[in-house]
Amino acid sequence: MRRWLKSARFAVAGIRHGWATQRNFQIEVVLGVVALLVAVWVQAPLAPVLLACGLVLALELLNTAVEAVVDLVSPEPHPLAKVAKDAAAGAVLVGCVFAVLVGAVTLLPALLRKLGLL
Q1: Burial, 36: exposed, middle or buried (Cβ in 10 Å; 0-12, 13-18, 19+)?
Q2: For residue 68, is pLDDT > 90?
Q3: Where are the domains of the chain?
Q4: Radius of gyration of the chain (CA)
Q5: CB atoms within 10 A of CB 62
Q6: 60 belongs to the catalytic site
Q7: What is the mean pLDDT of residues 61-89?
Q8: Which DSSP string corresponds to 50-70?
Q9: 28, 60, 67, 76: which is the annotated catalytic residue?
Q10: Measured distance CA(73)–CA(81) in Å, rounded
Q11: Tell me: the pLDDT tens digits for 14-46?
Q12: Residues 88, 66: contact at Cβ < 8 Å?
């Protein structure tokens, strides 16, 4: 149990660092909270929204880790460093696009019904 708690503390430190240093992470957290509040308000299924939000936030933290490691091992510009950073950022973008699609499919019909537009 102590090993798990120690690992959890490291993980929480990583999340705190992401929150403190990554504006996109902050925006994604806020948008995720909004999406979850809308899901609760319109009584839409929470599982897809939670999964999509969690995936985007996890990808953003992985992107932050990749950028940190690349900066550590390659402080000078290098074509492969660019590839690594761009690919990690691309993963976040793909996750965000699909999270928006999940939100549209999951929330939009219920939201339109709730607003009397459907």
Answers
A1: middle
A2: yes
A3: 2-114
A4: 18
A5: 15
A6: yes
A7: 97
A8: HHHHHHHHHHHHHHHHHHHHH
A9: 60
A10: 9
A11: 999 999 999 999 999 999 999 999 999 999 999
A12: yes
List CB contacts of 14: < 8 A, sequence separation 6 or more: 61, 65
Classify domain 2-114 at the CATH class level: mainly alpha
69: left (phi over 0), alpha (psi -120 to 50) or beta: alpha
Token pair 């549209």 is at which residue? 104
71 vs 118 pLDDT, higher one: 71
The dihedral built from the CA positions of residue 108, 27, 54 and 37, taken in this order, carries a sign that is negative
Find the helix packing angle between 79-114 and 46-73, rounded to 10°: 160
Alpha helices in 1-118 (DSSP H): 2-21, 23-42, 46-73, 79-114
Phi-psi sector, 8: left (phi>0), alpha (psi -120 to 50), beta? alpha
Q: Tokens standing for 84?
A: 């690594």
Q: Closest Cα partner for 61 from 111, 109, 10, 114?
A: 10
Compute CA distances 89 → 16, 71, 96, 109, whole Å: 20, 14, 11, 30
